[in-house]
UniProtKB/TrEMBL annotation:
<dbReference type="InterPro" id="IPR015421">
    <property type="entry name" value="PyrdxlP-dep_Trfase_major"/>
</dbReference>
<dbReference type="GO" id="GO:0009436">
    <property type="term" value="P:glyoxylate catabolic process"/>
</dbReference>
<keyword id="KW-0032">Aminotransferase</keyword>
<dbReference type="InterPro" id="IPR015422">
    <property type="entry name" value="PyrdxlP-dep_Trfase_small"/>
</dbReference>
<dbReference type="GO" id="GO:0005739">
    <property type="term" value="C:mitochondrion"/>
</dbReference>
<dbReference type="GO" id="GO:0019481">
    <property type="term" value="P:L-alanine catabolic process, by transamination"/>
</dbReference>
<protein>
    <recommendedName>
        <fullName>Alanine--glyoxylate aminotransferase 2, mitochondrial</fullName>
        <ecNumber>2.6.1.18</ecNumber>
        <ecNumber>2.6.1.40</ecNumber>
        <ecNumber>2.6.1.44</ecNumber>
    </recommendedName>
</protein>
<keyword id="KW-0663">Pyridoxal phosphate</keyword>
<comment type="similarity">
    <text>Belongs to the class-III pyridoxal-phosphate-dependent aminotransferase family.</text>
</comment>
<dbReference type="GO" id="GO:0047305">
    <property type="term" value="F:(R)-3-amino-2-methylpropionate-pyruvate transaminase activity"/>
</dbReference>
<keyword id="KW-0496">Mitochondrion</keyword>
<keyword id="KW-0808">Transferase</keyword>
<dbReference type="GO" id="GO:0030170">
    <property type="term" value="F:pyridoxal phosphate binding"/>
</dbReference>
<keyword id="KW-0809">Transit peptide</keyword>
<dbReference type="GO" id="GO:0016223">
    <property type="term" value="F:beta-alanine:pyruvate transaminase activity"/>
</dbReference>
<comment type="subunit">
    <text>Homotetramer.</text>
</comment>
<dbReference type="InterPro" id="IPR015424">
    <property type="entry name" value="PyrdxlP-dep_Trfase"/>
</dbReference>
Length: 475
């Protein structure tokens, strides 16, 4: 029988032998000592059960230790643990064929990596080699990795170090229609809208009513979008060479706090980036694999086809793996050198990832994301209307953000101490959620995609109680 170390001993070891940062990121004042997981549930070493709505940062996609995936892993572990892809073995080929089938043409050539940072590193390299250009643009507030190169793509001071990283990396204003200077009401594609008034004279065009005929006769559907695109044009005019290598963006920001862009933002940006010789890269590390509910890939919700898609996290339900998928044309530019990766395409990782895709289909995880996600968003929006400190509720499917504010009028971030009080209280009542946003002001909900409506109700009751407790104590 496996027995956990004592909590005290783990803390002692953590202090002495672990990356000192791990002391800061126990995340809670009273840390959670995890013993075991099953589907949407985690148990701590004292046998307390938690509803896990953070999934190790949107990573446990089909459920902790999902029995079908565990079985596939066990089978492969008994057969072959490792060989590099200089040899030919079945799991890699079974998997790449299956993964390619989920993506539209011409996104068919796959490179397997071991993490999201590694996938974005590789994508950046390929974009530069393919285009012969150097400059890369990302959105302010984004997270794309922590390696020296991807640290340049990431635009959040918390993850930066004062070293020579990010040569040729630039960022443009995040088109955040809640906290940014422009936008509001119906700018974005979400089941719930922000309560911020939109000053856009064409606001009526944003509503989801079938105005297709009418729309097509009018250019530019959203002046907020035009203004954020204007910011991108300023970056083109001031910061980069006339030809650029790439633009990276998540379909819905993850670490940045589930920020959603005005409806045509990615489409318009892709067009401008391509005009300057750049390739468009969708970072689907968090949004991929059905998490947004409406589509299997987040970019499909923006009506664009990227030139490259990077993925990790949910790809293998928590087993270390990542991938870059690109076009045959870009792959050909990259074939000039030898690309080698010892663990990329590991047979166990491939067997797991393959079983994850099957399980997603069998369990209907995308539909669950859509249904439970829409329910959560709708109910959270009601709470937003009730509590002065909830500024915004946004997202799609099970990629949800709840932005907390001092008050609705100022939209200033709720300070870290207050965030942490609500966060800790929610945990003490048995639910794990995440925090994000540049100021740590947004609660993030991105559970394993096996949660039920009952789980959603449990969370809503707990969160409501935590907010109520906070308001009682401070107002
Ligand atoms: N891209 C996004 C959107 C991410 O959220 C993350 C991880 N938080 C990464 C890339 C980097 O992934 P990894 O930690 O696996 O390197």
């Amino acid at each position: 029988e496996y027995k956990d170390m004592s909590k005290e001993r783990m803390m002692e070891i953590r202090r002495q032998y672990c990356n000192p940062m791990t002391m800061k990121v126990t995340y809670y004042k009273k840390p959670v000592y995890i013993h075991q997981g099953h589907m949407q549930w985690l148990w701590d070493v004292d046998g307390r059960r938690y509803l896990d709505l953070f999934a190790g940062v949107a990573t446990v996609s089909v459920g902790h230790c999902h029995p079908k995936v565990t079985e596939a892993a066990e089978k492969q572990l008994r057969k072959l643990w490792h060989t590099t892809n200089i040899y030919v073995y079945s799991p890699l080929h079974e998997y790449t064929e299956k993964l390619a089938a989920t993506l539209p043409d011409p996104l068919k050539v796959i490179y397997l990596t071991n993490s999201g940072s590694e996938a974005n590193d590789l994508a950046m390299l390929m974009a530069r080699l393919h285009t012969g250009n150097f400059d890369v643009i990302t959105l302010r507030g984004s997270y794309h990795g922590g390696s020296p190169l991807t640290m340049g793509l990431t635009s959040n001071a918390a993850y930066k170090y004062p070293v020579a990283s990010g040569l040729g990396c630039h960022n443009t204003m995040c088109p955040d229609v809640f906290a940014g200077p422009w936008g509001g009401s119906n700018c974005r594609d979400s089941p719930v809208q922000t309560i911020r008034d939109c000053s856009c004279p064409q606001e009526f065009l944003c509503w989801n009513i079938p105005l297709i005929y009418f729309r097509s006769s009018i250019t530019g559907s959203c002046t907020a979008n035009d203004k954020y695109i204007g910011q991108l044009n300023e970056v083109f005019a001031t910061s980069v060479a006339s030809r650029i290598a790439a633009f990276f963006a998540e379909p819905i920001m993850g670490v940045g706090g589930a920020v959603q862009y005005p409806k045509n933002f990615l489409k318009d940006t892709y067009k401008l980036v391509r005009e300057r010789g750049g390739v468009c890269i969708a970072d689907e590390v968090q949004t991929g694999f059905g998490r947004t509910g409406s589509h299997f890939w987040g970019f499909q919700g923006h009506d664009v086809i990227p030139d490259m898609v990077t993925m990790a996290k949910g790809i293998a339900n928590g087993f270390p793996m990542g991938a870059v998928v690109t076009t045959p044309e870009i792959a050909a530019s990259f074939a000039k050198g030898v690309h080698f990766n010892t663990f990329g395409g590991n047979p166990v990782a491939c067997a797991i990832a393959s079983s994850v895709l099957d399980t997603m289909e069998e369990d209907g995880t995308q539909q669950i994301s859509h249904d439970v996600g829409t329910y959560l968003l709708t109910e959270l929006a009601k709470m937003r209307d009730k509590y002065e400190i909830i500024g915004d509720v946004r997202g799609k499917g099970l990629q949800i953000g709840v932005e907390m504010v001092k008050d609705k009028a100022s939209r200033k971030p709720l300070p870290p101490a207050a965030m942490s009080e609500i966060f800790e209280d929610t945990k003490d009542m048995g639910v794990l959620i995440g925090k994000g946003g540049v100021y740590g002001q947004t609660f993030r909900i991105k559970p394993p995609m096996c949660i039920t409506r009952d789980d959603a109700d449990f969370f809503l009751a707990v969160f409501n109680q935590a907010l109520h407790n906070y308001m009682e104590d401070h107002h």
